[in-house]
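Running this now, will post back.
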Amino acid sequence: MTLTRPPWLSTELVGALVAWTAVATNVVLVSFVLFFRREPRVDVPRVLLAFGALALWVGFQVVMGMRISRFLCIHLVYLDTFVLLPLMGIVLLRRKEVVLTKPVRNACIASLALVPIGLYSSFVEPYMLVTERTTVALSPKRAGNDPIVIGVLADIQCVSITDRERDAVARIMAAKPDLILIPGDLVQLGGRNLDRVIDDFRALLAPLDAPLGVYFVQGNCEAKKKASVLLEETRVRFLDNEIVELRHGDRRITLCGVDLEFSAPAREVLRQIETSPGGDDVRIVVAHRPDVMYALPSGSRVDLVVAGHTHGGQVQIPGFGPPITLSEIPRHVAAGGLHELEDRRIYVSRGLGWEHGFAPRVRFLCVPEVSLLTLETASSASSPP
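Update: finished.
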């Protein structure tokens, strides 16, 4: 007999239940260590003992959670930070029979600042969509003078279609780009749940149109067959390890799209776009993972790589950047924007969505974006090689 999970029991719900249950046990543990002795004074050593025990217990939870999902572990740590810590601070401050030393009281008061940060990162910033506009300088060696405007809609990665996704598409179309690129991750749903969003998702993509076309490459969230189903009845073309030749005004554009794993066919088309004769066309590679940079040589002939995948890290710490990027590229590059690595230029979009499933809904100092890239000829003094 095969057990079938009911439709209402989503991965998100399972992850939330597991994480909140774990946090409840953490609250019990910390409370026990703090209050098992009847003496009213709570000082720094006592707090350190409580949170030392908590660290050991959370470490065990993380080890067990890794058997399920790394994102479940992130969810647990997120809730411990933004729920458990301020909760314990409030408990200590409100217990009249407890005498807090000054450092402990100050720490409890400081923990309250985590509440608005947690609320903002879960319920405000994930919905603060912005339009990023970036100019990419082309070498004077490339023929033509007409600018090329590229709309980038990366990591839609939704579980349902809302006004936020519709707003993103409307922003792209309002800019009237010459070319639209979708670097993977359409919807984050299991195959059995895909049917409930197919029509809505196709309706979302239906307005997308551009003179040079709309092109999609495979992301983590969709097998190739699933992607093909989602893109039916739209003008979006699945660029699967292919090269297309485009013309825009007095520009010639060579566009290459590669698959998720940089398979042998992907590496072959990358070799072709790198070595094909002619030096005056604009060459663009679009891939989901920015790690495609390492499949290109230093001083690559490719003018621009466009990628997504990292979501900008979703969380960025001032002065440090994103702690987690799930990519081998440098942290500052994975954080998003236009960068140059060994004469290879890449634009990494922070994307529209966020990680679902077992992960917490969170973005902090890393707002979601749609991107508009304008490629135009630079002056000889500032142009790339």
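The longest strand covers residues 130-138. More later if anyone needs it.
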